[in-house]
Each structure stands twice: as structure tokens, then as C-alpha cells.
Amino acid sequence: MIATQRLSSLESMLAGDHHRLEHAFQAIVTRAYGGDVQELEGQWLIFQRALLGHLEAEEKYLIPALAQDRPGEAAVLLEDHTRIRDMLLELGIDLDLHCLRAERVDAFVEVLRAHAHREEHTFYPWADGQMAASVAHRTRHE
Length: 142
Ligand SMILES: [Fe+2]
Ligand SMILES: [Fe+2]
Prior knowledge:
Shape: elongated
Largest sheet: none
Bound molecules: fe (ii) ion
Distance between the termini: 17 Å
Oligomer: single chain
């Protein structure tokens, strides 16, 4: 029972990250388009740190195991991460120059959503399955 709660909280925590990150990004876009540049830099740095932290945690703790079991899926996720990092860099430059372009914003949101969808429908359920198997294995051998 405790194990099940832990498993579902892992999935909901990661999916919750996706929602919070997208929400934070939209708030930044609204502020930038409104010409409200005060606090924008700080807000952007917080968003950037949170997004990079999410990607790094997945790459460090989850994707290596996925790569052993499903290398193709792991490669796609890592390509997504590279693309997200590249776009993040471009958006940061746009923000510095106060010229956030709508098409770049839309493309970023699209990539973030597609990536979140992929992870929430394949990667995270797989990770939960792996953890459940590991907990069951440990329970049997204790
Ligand atoms: Fe990811
Ligand atoms: Fe993710």
C-alpha cells in the first residue's frame, strides 16, 4: 500500500512539474508581451533553473534505465531535451533583447507539450512499472 502511494506520487510529481513549468512560462510570456520587464529576468531565471533541473533529474535518475530496456524511446526523449535546451537558450536571448517572438513562443510550448505527453503516456508509466517490479522483488526477498 505504501509502495503504491509512493509510485503514484512519483508520476504525479513529474507530471505536476510539467504543468507548473508550462504555467510559469505562460506567466513570463504574458508579462513580456505586456511590456512589464521588471522582475522578468528573475522570473525567467527561476523558470530556467526549474526546467533544467527537471530535465537533469530525468537524465540522471530515470533515462539510463530506460535506455537499457527501450533504447529507441530513450533516444527520442534525449533528442527532445536537447531541442528544449536549445530553444530555452534562444528564448533567453530574445528576452534579453526584449524581442520575444510569438512564433518562437508557440513552437516552444508545442515542443514542451508534445514532450510532456510522450513522457506521461509512455515513460512515466514505464518507470512506475519498473519501480513496482523492484519493490515486489525486494519484498519477496526480505
Ligand atoms: Fe523530459
Ligand atoms: Fe518530464
